[in-house]
Amino acid sequence: MAMKRKTARWTARGYSEAKNFYEVLGVDVEAAIQTALCTPLSLHCWQADDVRGLESHTEAVDSGGILATGQYPGRARTGDEMRQDLEEVMRLSPGVHRVNLHAIYAETDGRPVARDALEPVHFRRWISWAKTRHIGLDFNTSFFAHPLANDGLTLSHPDRKVREFWIRHGLAARRIATAIGRTLRSPCVLNHWLPDGRKDSPADRWTPRRRLLESLDRMLGDHEGVDRRWCRDAVEGKLFGIGSEDYVVGSNEFYAAYALTRGVILCLDMGHFHPTETIHDKLSALLMFHPTLLLHVSRPIRWDSDHVVLFNDDLRAVFLELVRGGALKRVWLATDFFDGSINRLCAYVIGARAVRQALLFALLEPTARIQRLEAEGRGGEKLAWMEQMKTAPFSAVWDELCRRAGAPVGAEWIEQARAYEEQVLRQRG
Ligand code: RNT
Ligand code: ZN
User: What is the pLDDT of residues 200-247, one digit of tens each?
Assistant: First the structure.
């Protein structure tokens, strides 16, 4: 306890000095803290259970595309356990959160409900939980881990019946997203990612793309029970996946053009590009044309490995671009990673805090000053200031942000996560 008070006192003093440091450079520190706190971050629910879902009837088939690895104890097994974990994540991470669900997290009380027959009622527990906690919900279609996805093809499948099934699934999800958004009075972003692709040297890259285009147009057209004010559809491309190393039907180019021409949101996942390709340079290009983007904040290591998000250069570069372009309000932020090899609560909190840290870091940049230096041809000084900001007293402002949000300050959360692991996670057989 004595330790705690000491930390808090140190933080308060550190903050006023840090604030002064940034203000001399023309940064509005109070505004930065406010913006960093109130920017919504949608927490993916699937880190809690390694993307297994709550369906009892479909055996866990690995139909390709994504893969969670690790056997660390404590995986959530029910909706209640997932909500319990997510509440703890939100307690330990400052700022406004939403929760991002997948169709496989329907709660049907043990009754098998086919994915094309899902209804809002199957998400009533999630919805009422969100209502009580005053958080928004987002949603995803689940085009994987299903017998009809075993060929590695869904909406682009050659068999019309298979395509029809998945179109009906998409429609069911759009109705659910509409109900979620309307009930919570907050638009629900419905992301569509599908694994469709080929492992090796496709002889025909054209026909599957034509079929995907046709299926998407049908699925995303006007339908009864779907209201675009509450259901905001997004499409997520990818370079490759497990079993689709050579060809992914829904590539980034395909969806960038699709989203623009159909008025839906393009989703960029940080792990869905070539191993050395990053997304920060794409933001100013795409946002010249797309009104909004959905960002899946993830971390690839050599491939789309969905590692826990860290406060690293890539993440800072993304937020610096958004802040410099005044584009924060034009993106929807959502985490997307899954590591089953470590304490899953730690995984969540590290990622959630890292996103908010990167956001604050970007908001504390003296952008006007460094842009002026660049415009005046003083590139050396510009670069020097960019370097200088990396060792600026950022942590004191971050601690202050946590304190104001009522979230643990500094390393305090690590001890709390350990206690949660002992008391809750380790008790799960
Ligand atoms: C897969 C995509 C997709 C999934 C989630 C579970 O490569 O990133 O967003 O991670 O839908
Ligand atoms: Zn993703």
Answer: 999 999 999 999 999 999 999 999 999 999 999 999 999 999 999 999
Do 321 and 268 touch, CB atoms closer than 8 A?
A: no
- Rounded to whole angstroms, the Cα distance separating 11 from 395 reads 9
Q: Which ligand is nearest to the CA of 195?
A: 1
Which two tokens mark 210? 């034509």
Ligand 1 atom closest to the Cα of residue 51 is 6
From ligand 2's centre to the CA of 224, what distance in Å?
28
Return the biggest CA–CA distance within the chain.
69
Strand partners, 111: none
Closest residue to atom 3 of ligand 1, CA basis: 193
The DSSP string of 61-98 is ---SB-------S----SHHHHHHHHHHHHHHS-S-EE
DSSP 351-380: HHHHHHHHHHHHHTS-HHHHHHHHHTT-HH
Atom of ligand 1 nearest to the CA of 336: 10
Residue 346, C-beta contacts closer than 8 angstroms, at least 6 positions apart = 414, 417, 421
pLDDT in tens, 356-404: 999 999 999 999 999 999 999 999 999 999 999 999 999 999 999 999 9
- Give the whole-angstrom CA distance, residue 305 versus residue 272: 10
Give per-residue burial for 116-135: e unless 16+ CB within 10 Å, then b: bebebebbeebbebbeeeeb
* pLDDT over threshold 90, residue 155: yes
CB 330 within 8 A of CB 293: yes
User: Quick one: tokens of 274?
Assistant: 């070539």
Cβ-proximal residues to 372 (8 Å cutoff; 6+ apart), any chain? none
Distance CA 399, CA 316 (A): 18
Give this prediction's pTM: 0.96
